[in-house]
Amino acid sequence: MMDDLGATKPRPALDAQALRGEFPIYQNNPGLVFLDSGASAQKPRAVIDGVAEFYRRDYANVHRGVYQLSQRSTDHFEAARETTSAFLNAADANEIVFVRGATEAINLVAQSWGPAFVQPGDEIIVSDLEHHSNFVPWQMLCERMGARLVLAPTDASGGFDLAAFEALLGSRTKMVAVTHVSNVTGAILPVERIVQLAHTKGAKVLVDGCQAIPRMPVDVRAIGCDFYVFSGHKVYGPSGIGVLWGRYELLTAMPPWQTGGGMITQVTAEHTEFQDPPHRFEAGTPDISGAVGLKLALDFVEGLGRDAIREHEEMLTGYAIDRLSRIPGLNLLEGGQRRISVLSFTLDGVHPHDVGTVLDQHGVAVRVGNHCAQPLMDKLGIAGAVRASLGVYNDRDDIDALAAAVEACREMFSR
Amino acid sequence: MIDLRELYQDIILDHGRHPRNFRPIEHPTHTAKGHNPLCGDRVTVYLTLDGDRIADVSFEGRGCAISTASSSLMTEVLKGKTLAEAQALFAQFHAKVTGGEVGSLPEALEEDSERLDPLTGVKAYPARVKCATLPWHAFEAALKGGAAAPVKTE
């Protein structure tokens, strides 16, 4: 720490430097400045070793065998469901559907709930800063059903425009799909208010929690939404596992979207009866070790404390905004009044891709490009941006390294 | 650490900032768009063929320093070449940037090939190779599309 801001601010409860000892990637890549947790977070030893240990001791297929090992494996898998349920403060663990990731969760809702509840002429609202995964499935559903996709805008400050959203809501609005935290600007959307407004019109609300889940407390019942989705790999868990939470009465009203083993009660030559949720939506052998790894990751996050993580990342976000804003020619994308952990910027006269390469040569890992948010890039009139995103292992030194590398990049391209 | 100046040589930065032949051709005989969805780079290459000789070649679009410089240098070396010469230059350039086997060129093309050498620094950056080859792929697509479809004239 070389700045004097540190002396005046309260010491964060979370010690990022010490935490790096829990992440083997740092031991194997000395000097790594990892600022791409928004794309995928690194894995703590507890997850890496825990998954290996599960394979060594308790692995078998789930919900199938009468033998003890299969029961133990099933117990682990279902314990992961319980942990996930508690993590979201869901009403019941049966509201947790394991999927491959947030993308699959949204596609599940769009393809199962969608055709059952959306009529020609209906409307689906998404915000203009959605990730393609919370945009394209709805666009496809609208094309298929003859419905209309409506974009709720962000305002000039980069925050969600509640008044504009309210004006777009109507009796034809059937679904509102919004992100909890923007994967481009880190803007925190007022999801509670969005839900209240949408529900007055009878619309359902799906919240994409990919960027929120790793960094702030999330209570789906307090939010009041109907569906909440996230990916395991962004919250320090394995890739390949993700979660759809849905209100149980909604899940029971939805037809299966994929069929096969593990999700039926009776199959005859003429007819098949399906299990209740969540198993209805989990055809085939699930990602068993992925669920086990997800539980370990959520336990890890709870161990650190979600309030402590939020405090740490908010502090660091503020520091990064302050530090980056002082670099001449650097333009931070606006993220509204409330934002966390994700910052994107452009650099005058230097293409983001070139910035990314220069930063990489300085050992700084960031993401460059359109961040799967082309509608937002089009609105901002840019081809892409450089994005730095935070995890629990980041500290001010990482931000200082980023700033120094950006300065070096600026210098290089102005010669 | 690989020296970044190997990648961003002065000539690259110069062509990246001040691309040559950066303009549309109003009535090209051949044209094609290149797009790299990874970074959003877009380039449109325009060609005017006179028989099998490239009478004029230009480009438009937006991209990183590497793709812009590569487009610019490509248009410079291609102007006046026959299609066979252009293909030979691309083949050798492609081999150099991807680390493939570099064949020999007719002596007349050596100098043009060397003009492209500053771009070969990308071979140390696998994620950036496509930036350098994007305009060349668009050039190839323009030739193919132009041959398959009715040739655009007036």
Briefly say what this structure is.
With 415 residues, chain A is α/β, with parallel strands linked by helices.
What does this entry look like structurally?
The complex is a heterodimer of chains A (415) and B (154). Chain A has 16 helices and 15 strands. Chain A has 415 residues and is of the alpha/beta class. Chain A folds into 2 domains: 5-44 and 305-413, Alpha-Beta Complex (Aspartate Aminotransferase, domain 1); 49-303, Type I PLP-dependent aspartate aminotransferase-like (Major domain) (Aspartate Aminotransferase, domain 2). Chain A has a 7-stranded mixed β-sheet with strand order 2-8-7-6-5-3-4, sandwiched between helices. In chain A, helix 4 (45-57) packs antiparallel against helix 12, helix 5 (68-88) packs across helix 12 (288-304) and helix 13 runs parallel beside helix 16 (396-413). With 154 residues, chain B is of the alpha+beta class. Chain B has one domain: Sufe protein. Chain: A (Alpha-Beta Complex), CATH 3.90.1010. In chain B, helix 3 (65-78) crosses helix 6 and helix 4 packs antiparallel against helix 6. Chain B is globular. The chains are: A alpha/beta (415), B alpha+beta (154). Chain A binds chain B through residues 349-354, 357-358, 361, 368-370, 374, 377, 383-384, 412-413, 415, and chain B through 1-2, 4, 7-8, 10, 13, 17, 38-42, 62-66, 68, 125, 127-128, 131.
